Prior knowledge:
Elements: H1 2-23, E1 26-41, E2 62-72, E3 77-82, H2 97-106, E4 116-122, E5 134-141, H3 151-206
Antiparallel strand pairs: 1-2, 1-4, 2-3, 4-5
Pfam families: DUF1523
Protein name: DUF1523 family protein
Keywords: Membrane, Transmembrane, Transmembrane helix
Amino acid sequence: MAYVKWTIVTIVVLVIAGFLHYTLPQHDVVRITATKERQITFGENRIFFASNGAGNSEGDNTRFVNFIETFNRDGKPVVFRNEDTGWGWPPYFKFDTSNLQAKASDMISTKENPEWVVVTHYGWRNEYLSIYPNAVELRPVGSPDDSPIPWFNILFLGALAALVIWIWQLLARFKEDRIEPMLDEMGESLESAGDRAEGFWRRVFSR
Length: 207
């Protein structure tokens, strides 16, 4: 039974951790090499892209998506999509896709004369599923070693941890004050009933 309990707990923790890792902002220091608009045909990866725009019907499986192509300081390609989140989830309230694409185009640089940019984004990159993180902000930095401190994530996860601890303590106190006394009372009642039943049968068989 303990194995079942800890298996369920592990699955729940992994699901929550994956959800937070996908949703919370991340920061990559990269060099922008190109900005493009590509036609994407959606399949199982549709959930990892933004909702259709006003000009597309819900049945459309193909539309154009903006992309920002970059390389990190190790020379590894990193590709971001650039889509509005609107009022949907995750709540970045991003409406400036066109402006961000223009800003990214203005920050294009060469390998010989690089300009380093911090790309704030959310989401995952998976080549097999053709999914890309969504860029939400661009900011120039002087060096590829300039890595911003994720203050929002620190504060959010700290507040979440405090909330979890508070709920855990609340449940533990409720169990101690209400559940355990009730179980003890039930145990005493069952024990008393057992004693009475034992006394009854002893009197019956003693006659």
